[in-house]
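Weekly sync, protein design subgroup
Attendees: M.S., D.O., the rotation student, P.L. (late)

Item 1: inverse folding check
M.S. brought a backbone from last month's batch and wanted to see whether the design step gives back something sensible before we order anything. D.O. pointed out we never logged the input encoding, so this time it goes straight into the notes. Structure tokens as presented (319 positions):
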């Protein structure tokens, strides 16, 4: 099947401007305003297209003829989407553990798939070997171009006239965190604190903060696979070490079960399906966590994610 292609224009962004919704359901009885930045509504289903799209456009302008990704998740799907829109072939190298659903979503965006290795590490190493002189490697979280692209979500919040006094977001490798910090700074909001949420078993930022240095988790044991970076980027860790004058980052860890329950509740409240990776951030708000005490205008990045179905969420909830 060949999807229709819009005319190629390398300067129009590949992401869409997403709604910013004031959620009465999530504010509950707290009296606080909860603003949802609905990145789940991006065409490839997550915020990743902002950074990945911007990086891909930049690499094409620099002469790239092919994109290579090693993500079997939302980053690989976003890369395939960007390639289709830019009419540039995309190769995604995924490990054997990648679900049939994720493979199907990459194929649907006309990405080519190579299955290699038992884990992400092996697939990633193979992908790097395949990168030739005219290829661009699209990293899932550790590239300054990604952060520049992700920052556009904060530009949109500023344009909408909403001034957050705290931001809640999920952390995997920390690309979203770095992008949001960049967006806050370039809109004069560098002092706004950030609640950086992970699930237990994918808590590479929390453990790095506790250890005082970047640690590598022996394995990812959380179901929130999109948060499953065994080590956060150097930039994300550096941001977590800064004082209150510049986007103080508070690390919070929630359980898989809390993340899944938040996804199910969010389905009812906002009629949108997201992955547990996103549910982690939502769980903090639903729990009216102590970290949010005193904040009146909380911006929640609803990062989205397409690799979990409703049936899968219900199955996890029953476990
Ligand atoms: C990638 C991803 C994350 C984590 O983003 P990082 O930039 O790796 O921190 C969170 N949620 C979803 C749905 C994702 O796809």
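Designed sequence read out in the meeting:
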């Amino acid at each position: 099947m060949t999807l229709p292609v819009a005319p190629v224009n390398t300067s129009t962004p590949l992401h869409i401007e997403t709604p910013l919704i004031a959620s009465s359901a999530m504010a509950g009885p707290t009296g606080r305003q909860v603003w949802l930045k609905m990145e789940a509504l991006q065409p490839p289903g997550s915020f990743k297209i902002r950074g990945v799209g911007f990086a891909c456009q930049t690499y094409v302008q620099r002469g790239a003829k092919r994109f290579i990704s090693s993500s079997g998740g939302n980053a690989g799907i976003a890369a395939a989407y960007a390639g289709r829109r830019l009419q540039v072939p995309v190769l995604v190298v995924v490990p054997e553990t990648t679900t049939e659903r994720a493979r199907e979503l990459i194929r649907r965006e006309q990405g080519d798939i190579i299955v290699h290795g038992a884990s992400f590490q092996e697939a990633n190493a193979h992908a790097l070997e395949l990168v030739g002189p005219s290829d661009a490697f699209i990293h899932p979280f550790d590239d300054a171009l990604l952060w520049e692209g992700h920052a556009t979500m904060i530009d949109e919040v500023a344009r909408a006239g909403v001034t957050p006094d705290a931001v809640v977001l999920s952390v995997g490798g920390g690309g979203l965190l770095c992008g949001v910090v960049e967006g806050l700074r370039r809109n004069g909001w560098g002092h706004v604190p950030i609640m950086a949420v992970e699930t237990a078993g994918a808590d590479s930022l929390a453990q790095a903060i506790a250890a005082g240095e970047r640690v590598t988790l022996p394995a990812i044991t959380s179901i929130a696979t999109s948060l499953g970076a065994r080590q956060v980027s150097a930039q994300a860790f550096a941001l977590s070490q800064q004082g209150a004058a510049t986007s103080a980052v508070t690390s919070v860890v929630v359980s898989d079960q809390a993340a899944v329950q938040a996804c199910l509740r969010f389905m009812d409240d906002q009629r949108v399906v997201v992955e547990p990776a996103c549910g982690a951030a939502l769980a903090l708000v639903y729990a009216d966590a102590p970290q949010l005490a005193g904040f009146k205008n909380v911006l929640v990045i609803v990062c989205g994610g397409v690799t979990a179905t409703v049936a899968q969420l219900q199955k996890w909830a029953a476990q």
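Discussion: The pocket of pyridoxal-5'-phosphate is lined by residues 46, 48, 73-74, 141, 170-177, 226-227, 229, 275, 277-278, 303-305 (CB under 6 Å). The chain has a mean pLDDT of 94.
Action: P.L. to compare against the previous round before Friday.
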